[in-house]
From TrEMBL, chain A:
NCBIfam families linked to this entry: oligo_HPY, PRK11308.1
Domain ABC transporter: 9-259
Name under which the protein is recorded: Dipeptide ABC transporter ATP-binding protein
UniProt KW keywords: ATP-binding, Nucleotide-binding, Transport
Species name: Aquibacillus salsiterrae
From TrEMBL, chain B:
GO biological process: peptide transport
Protein name: ABC transporter ATP-binding protein
PROSITE patterns (UniProt xref): ABC_TRANSPORTER_2
Annotated membrane topology: Peripheral membrane protein
Family designation: Belongs to the ABC transporter superfamily.
GO cellular component assignments: plasma membrane
ATP-binding found in the keyword field: yes
One matching Pfam family: oligo_HPY
Subcellular location: Cell membrane
ABC transporter domain ranges (all copies): 6-257
Length: 329, 325
């Protein structure tokens, strides 16, 4: 599980800012959405790094940046120590074999006019695999994700949501990737189906040994599948730790609030809740200093002015919070 | 009993389609008392939303929609009421909180106007007093500077605030029954926690009965008093909330609970294998039989009735049929 020996992906100072156009007739000052703002972290070979956060925190943008489906505004992404932000189109195309994506919506991410076989085969076709190879590969993949091979000539609409997600997973595995970004892969599925897909994703990882970046809003799902978890808030990472550590000993007030807000399916456990007041601020004009200070129960004067540093609280446990830093020193 | 607010008996909602009759809701019975929160939980397509629409008589008008059974609300059967009388009940005595606050508010009217409409229609209130009610409702659901907010349009509200607005609207008619259909599904967890807290507070203040329709067992555990688990149009298990979670009986309920990832617990999930049945092609027997690990011969004969395993715990499963022993 936790072989923190080799770094597969390293992200340094990653930023993505989207410009909002100033509206048609009226000239408005240009506004910038800081969707992802200065991320630094590594993903190790063979692990699952979970990313959680509420809507609009930049987690999906970050996932897309890592695969260079979006061009970063600033920063570097190293894949096996080579900076993919400097790759030419040609180089990128070659390298893309090694990183793949699993999408959220199994209804929108499969072409309705292609059969299952064609869908799974397409990446192989793109990389010019031979016909015989392709058929064999489709067979192994369908087998691996638990779809009967006899279904290979059916179209996506003939499958249920859970089955479609399995097909999406089979497609992402077609080229034997090293790194898979899964963006909310189970959010659209019912609980009993969700559990099937989560188990499948775990089993496939054990079998093929690839690395996941698992993006989700549901902390209990992320906690189940991940070795380490990063928590994002308004474009920033606020805490990163081993998943057990994050659950047992969260240090950032946002992580604490997020954990206590999750409804636990156990009516006997009436817990003390850290209730956050207010709503998520807009990423267009994020609050100054620490972005969480408007909702933070521990906020102090310094939080409003100075952005907190990313510090190592204990071994392999990082957080960005003034109060935590003060407590340490 | 006197405090029974809603008594649903053998409610069936079937849709005639080209592919046959879809038995979306097929003979369910439950009760809601004043001040009680009943959770109806189940996966997509199990009929939980159709149940709420049937109670409100939002289905059943078209020729292909067949609703039967009894829905006794404060002692009167809603299914036999004239549409005119239903109009007076919807929005005043029974409030609905729909899932998506983006679509349940009208984008071209201010939020205040939409709430004020309720007392104007149901109580023939004057514009001025209705507006005051609207502001009072927004205050009640915790919207800051309610006077200014009432004058704003839904797009100026965030998701969580819109849902508060919708709740305010449902409360404006002073309902004795609130039906909340996945009220927090579209919201982020920290906002969901706020809305759930608000609903509990309002229940205590108004003593309304609440039907909470959700797919999230966590939400059920947080706020419900009793739970009905639905599967493919049937209630398969019904119990007080502590009892259901401590002592689930039906194989489907057990499976659901084992499918849920629990925080801080990495034990392998045990999903319910297979998929829910197609509602227009149901075979004889228990609807869960195909996916059930404990299936035996009798399960294929007829869908089991609810067997009592405890004074208030009932399960539709032949495993608990004591007479058969």
């Amino acid at each position: 599980m936790q072989t923190k020996t080799k770094e597969l992906v390293r992200v340094e100072g990653l930023k993505k800012h989207f410009k909002l156009s100033g509206g048609g007739l009226r000239k408005e000052p240009e506004q910038v959405v800081k969707a992802v703002d200065d991320l630094n972290f590594s993903v190790y070979e063979g692990e699952t790094l979970g990313i959680v956060g509420e809507s609009g925190c930049g987690k999906s943008t970050m996932g897309r940046l890592l695969l260079r489906l979006l061009e970063p505004t600033e920063g570097n992404i190293y894949f096996e120590n080579r900076d993919i932000t400097t790759f030419s189109k040609q180089e990128l195309r070659e390298k893309r074999r090694e990183f793949q994506m699993i999408f959220q919506d199994p209804y929108a991410s499969l072409n309705p006019r292609m059969t299952v076989k064609e869908i799974i085969e397409e990446p192989l076709r793109t990389y010019k695999e031979k016909q015989a190879e392709r058929s064999k590969r489709v067979q192994t993949l369908l087998d691996a994700v638990g779809i009967p091979e006899s279904y290979k000539n059916r179209y996506p609409h003939e499958f249920s949501g859970g089955q479609r997600q399995r097909i999406g997973i089979a497609r992402s595995l077609a080229l034997n990737p090293k790194f898979i970004v899964a963006d909310e892969p189970v959010a659209a599925l019912d609980v009993s189906i969700q559990a099937q897909v989560l188990n499948l994703m775990k089993d496939l990882q054990d079998e093929f040994g690839f690395t996941y970046l698992f993006i989700a809003h549901d902390l209990s799902v992320v906690n189940y599948i991940s070795d380490r978890i990063g928590v994002m808030y308004l474009g920033k990472m606020v805490e990163l730790a081993d998943s057990d550590k994050l659950y047992n000993n969260p240090v950032h007030p946002y992580t604490q609030a997020l954990l206590s807000a999750i409804p636990v399916p156990d009516p006997t456990r009436k817990k003390e809740r850290v209730m956050l007041t207010g709503e998520l601020p807009s990423p267009v004009n994020p609050p100054s200093g620490c972005r969480f200070h408007t909702r933070c129960p521990l906020a102090q004067d310094i939080c409003k002015q100075v952005e907190p540093e990313w510090i190592e609280v204990e071994e392999n446990h990082f957080a960005a919070c003034h109060v935590v830093k003060e407590r340490l020193s | 009993m006197e405090d029974v607010l809603l008594d649903v008996k053998e409610l069936k909602t079937h849709f005639k389609t080209e592919k046959g009759v879809v038995k979306a809701v097929d003979g369910i019975s439950f009760q809601v008392r004043r001040g009680e929160i009943l959770g109806i939980v189940g996966e997509s397509g199990c009929g939980k939303s159709i149940t709420s629409q049937s109670i409100l008589r939002l289905v059943g008008y078209k020729r292909n929609e067949l609703v039967s059974g009894q829905v006794l609300f404060e002692g009167e059967d809603l299914l036999t009421k004239k549409e005119k009388n239903m109009l007076a009940i919807r929005g005043s005595k029974i409030g609905l909180i729909a899932q998506d606050p983006m679509t349940s508010l009208n984008p071209v009217y201010t939020v205040g106007n939409q709430i004020a409409e309720v007392p104007m229609i149901h109580e023939k209130a004057s514009k001025k007093s209705a507006w005051q009610t609207a502001i009072a409702m927004l205050k009640k659901v915790g919207i800051p500077s309610a006077e200014d907010r009432a004058d704003q349009y839904p797009h100026q509200f965030s998701g969580g605030m819109r849902q508060r607005g919708v709740i305010g609207m449902a409360l404006a008619g002073n309902p004795s029954l609130l039906i909340a259909d996945e009220p927090t599904t579209a919201l982020d967890v920290t906002i969901q926690a706020q809305v759930l807290d608000l609903m509990l507070k309002l229940r205590d203040e108004t003593n309304a009965g609440i039907i909470m329709i959700t797919h999230d067992l966590g939400v059920v555990a947080e706020i419900c008093d009793k739970v009905a688990v639905m599967y493919a149009g049937k209630i398969v298990e019904q119990a007080p909330v502590e009892e259901l979670f401590a002592n689930p009986k039906h194989p489907y309920t057990k499976g659901l609970l084992k499918s849920l990832p629990k925080l801080g617990d990495k034990e392998r999930l045990q999903p319910v294998e297979g998929q829910p049945p197609n509602l227009n092609d149901l075979h004889e027997g228990c609807r869960f039989a195909d996916r059930c690990p404990f299936v035996f011969d009798k399960c294929h004969t007829e869908h089991p009735p609810l067997f009592s395993t405890d004074s208030n715990h009932r399960t539709a499963c032949y495993l608990y049929d004591e007479e058969a022993e």
